[in-house]
Amino acid sequence: MSEPQFSPGLAGVVAGKSGVGLVNGTDGILLYRGYRVEDLAEHCTFEEVAHLLLKGKLPNREELSAFDAELKARRALPAGILALLRTLPTKTHPMAALQSAVAALSGFYPAPDAADRAASWEGILRLTASMPTIVAAFHRIRQGKDVVDPDLTQGMAGDFLTMLNGEKPTDKAARLFDVCLVLHAEHGFNASTFTGRVVGSSLADIYASMSAAVGSLSGPLHGGANEEVLVQLKEIPNAEAAPAWFDHMIETKQKVMGLGHRVYKVKDPRAGILQRMASDLFSTEGSTPLYDIAHAIEQRAAVKVGPKGVWPNVDFYSGLVYQKLGLTVDLFTPIFAIARIAGWSAHWMEQMEDNRIYRPDCIYTGPNDLTVPAIDAR
Ligand code: ACO
Fold first, then answer.
1. Would you name the residues annotated as active-site residues?
2. b vs e for 301-321, b when ≥16 Cβ sit within 10 Å of the residue's Cβ?
């Protein structure tokens, strides 16, 4: 028998078919159901993009208003979820709080069944609508502040910022945040999406599948990188010191967070949009040393690691934009999750359409044919 092929990280392994999103890493193109992410970011709200991903088409006015109403009806949390969030230690990472609440939501509604499309759709609407409320509520609870109820006069982006900060954002801030949600809504067969599909393939329900996806996203090599970017940038005293810092990282084989991508070997198109947004924000509202440092790192990286296909990814500039919007660093990954729920759920439904439980092989590297010695002889 020939030795099975092993591809670390499943790189290059085709593990499914999908019509949800295309990531073309050679040319730096990202499509959501055929539309370029740049086009969607310029012309659509997160709700329109969620409709596109979940229902397969951009909504007309009527469809959008019906979808919006369905989401609004599900923004508020059951009292039991708020009680659960109040029991968590205040030092709990918001991703852990989110993962717990997403799993727990299943107990508050009629038993979800992965094979029942209507029940799963109900869960998808509920998660898309209420994950922002969970993140905002936990943030206020851990600060000892009152939870702010959803404001149904606002879109999801503006309402999230209101529930978080207790005051309505400016239209510009709300739209900026809306674009960030659009940019993070979908990205092909990445680790967290694949996790959601793998868990769903066992016919685990939508809440169990999506809570697993949240856990996958929390890692520093995936969604958690956007937190690490700011931590690293803060280590650098100023923009002049950035090239030497960067060279030292590369010489000592350390990873610079926010650079590199499994698929993109050119600049991530989302990073380009976020960079323009950051540059606009910083030029109208005043630059910060961190933005200047980030810019200096990008320039150095282009020379030192660009030739081997390592360029800024979506996380490189997102943290700077979020920080300017007044968001704390440990909220960056939960924000990623409240956008990505749309892509995760679209993939999960696709998995259910043509499901076979995932069960890859591995190459056994352990010993063979051992016999159990008596306990005193071990
Ligand atoms: N800093 C320094 N060197 C890097 C970086 C980096 N961020 N990324 C890749 N490299 C180096 C690798 O060490 C490798 O070097 P070598 O040829 O000397 O061995 C070379 O560039 C090629 O690496 P890839 O094969 O392209 O990277 P891989 O696919 O294994 O990893 C990953 C991709 C995990 C994203 C990696 O680039 C990384 O750790 N980046 C930092 C974390 C990060 O920003 N993650 C967010 C990804 S986007 C997202 O999840 C939303």
1. 261, 315
2. beebbbeeebbbbbbbbbbbb
Decide whether any atom of ligand 1 lies within 6 Å of the 261 Cβ: yes
Say whether domain 225-324 belongs to CATH 2.40.50.150: no
Does the beta carbon of 206 lie inside 6 Å of ligand 1?
A: no
Residues shown for the chain: 378
* CA-based nearest residue to 95, from 327, 339, 332, 323: 332
Higher-confidence residue: 367 or 110?
367
pLDDT in tens, 259-298: 999 889 888 999 889 888 888 888 887 777 888 899 999 9
Which residue's alpha carbon is nearest to atom 19 within ligand 1?
A: 253
Distance from the alpha carbon of residue 261 to the mean position of ligand 1, in angstroms: 6
CATH 1.10.230.10 intervals, the chain? 225-324
- Is the Cβ atom of 300 under 6 angstroms away from ligand 1? no
CATH number for the domain whose boundaries are 21-220+333-353: 1.10.580.10
